[in-house]
Amino acid sequence: MTAFLGSRPTLLNSCAYAATVAEARYRIDAKPPAPRSSRIVGLDEGASSVVRELAGQPWRNARFVYLPGTLQLTEELSDADFVLMIATANDGAAAASAIGDACARRGIMTAGIVLNGSAATDAAVAALRPHARVLLVTDDRQDIAEIMSAVGA
Amino acid sequence: MQDASLQESMGPIVDRSKERLVSADSGIIKARRKLLKAALDLRDNGIAPPGVDVAHHRVRSAAIVLPKDASFLESCKDDLTAIPGVRQTSV
């Protein structure tokens, strides 16, 4: 936008200039080259049952992890671009902490979803919040699939 | 200003297969779903969209610094409701 506006001051209507052909050439007009390698982690039993349902749908490049269970972090994250942690309670707080720390060290994008609808929602939010870069609380399970699709999982 | 320029320069119909969203865009993803659901609910079931009910006009934004392990649902509940005469919560 700066290139087109030159020395013009930035005004409230300046965004109109961004719609011009001259500015549009800066947009990337192509599909993302490859799907992201995603890990979808159910942090507790309730979340894992939701994740199992999701795993039955077709995805481009997603792997699913169910907790409680064995978690081989190094192996799971070796080629991951994106990790989505899903919780319904705070049972998975320790796993969320380990995953969040490991992703932060490797520069892997993280997100958390807390499925609302139980007395443990607040505890789940508190447990997940420090370890996911973005946290969504929702009543709608379909939000998980929408986020996965939107980020190219 | 930057947000407005990007929104308006997208044009009326966008090919979303060319989008490059990231996890930080979950608000956009959720907003789209809510708008679509509201439109379908209105068309198919005659349900009024969110925002028509005056109770929704009392929802307000807030900026709060919380302890790292606090749940914002409980901690911010009171700050997200507009109360006449009470200033908006901000940092």
Report on the biggest sheet of chain A.
5 strands, parallel
Helix content of chain A: 25-40%
Looking at how many chains there are and whether they match, the oligomeric state comes to heterodimer
SSE series of chain A: HHEHEHEHEHEH
> What is the helix/strand order of chain B?
HHH
- What portion of residues of chain B is helical? 25-40%
Give the strand tally of chain B: 0
The major beta sheet of chain B can be summarized as: none
Given as residue ranges, the uncertain stretches of chain B (5+ residues, pLDDT < 50) are none
3D shape of chain B: extended
Give a written overview of the molecule.
The complex is a heterodimer of chains A (153) and B (91). Chain A is an alpha/beta fold. Helices cover 36% and strands 18% of the residues of chain A. Chain A is built from 7 helices and 5 strands, in the order ααβαβαβαβαβα. Chain A has helices spanning 2-5, 21-24, 45-55, 73-77, 93-106, 121-128, 142-150, and strands at residues 38-42, 62-66, 82-87, 109-115, 135-138. Chain A has a 5-stranded parallel beta sheet with strand order 2-1-3-4-5, sandwiched between helices. Chain A is elongated. Chain A starts with a helix and ends with a helix. Chain B is built from 3 helices and no strands. The two termini of chain B are 22 Å apart. The mean pLDDT of chain B is 88. Chains A and B meet through strand 4, helix 6, strand 5 and helix 7 of A and helix 1, helix 2 and helix 3 of B.
